[in-house]
Amino acid sequence: MSDLVPEDLALGWGPMSDNQILQDFEISQSARFYSWRSKGKLPIPREEVIEHSANTHVIPFDSAIRAQLERLRAGQVVHLTGLLIDGVRDDGRWVHTSLTRSDTGDGACEVMLVEAIELP
């Protein structure tokens, strides 16, 4: 699906964007999934981790947005503007977005059409 959804971003907000909290986690992405593991005792409740972080499949609105997405690096603060969408390729393959913050596992990813990127 990389032709339809070229990038994945592991995003965190609220407590999951706090470097004091993030230092207690190992965070990785592989095979289009985001995973986290606590290095010890969880610094915040598990539910807060789930509700304040996501693997987001991003679809750039245009080539300029695509170039900006490709330049993003781990740990960077970013503000994305866009829409959650379901994507369908010409051959009928599809990807659906999650519309809830409390889900996990396969099918829990958001799919976002990114219309603008702001780097504070």
Give a verbal description of the structure.
This protein is 16% helix and 38% strand. The strands form 3 sheets. The chain has a 4-stranded mixed beta sheet. A two-stranded antiparallel sheet has the order 2-3. The model has no long low-confidence stretch (mean pLDDT 94). The chain is of the alpha+beta class and 120 residues long. The longest helix is centred in the middle third of the chain and has 9 residues, at 63-71. The chain starts with 6 loop residues before the first strand and ends with a strand. It has one domain (7-118).
Gyration radius over CA = 15 Å
Uncertain regions: pLDDT < 50 for 5+ in a row?
Answer: none
Instruction: Measure the end-to-end span.
Output: 30 Å
Q: What is the 3D form? A: globular
> In DSSP terms, counting alpha (H) and pi (I) runs of 4 or more, how many helices?
3
Mean pLDDT: 94
User: What is the element string, with H for helices and E for strands?
Assistant: EHEEHEHEEEE
Strand content: 35-45%
Task: Please list the strands of the largest sheet in the order they lie side by side.
Answer: 1-4-8-5
Count of discrete structural domains: 1
Number of DSSP strand runs: 8
Helix content: 10-25%
| Main pleated sheet | 4 strands, mixed
Secondary-structure-derived class: alpha+beta
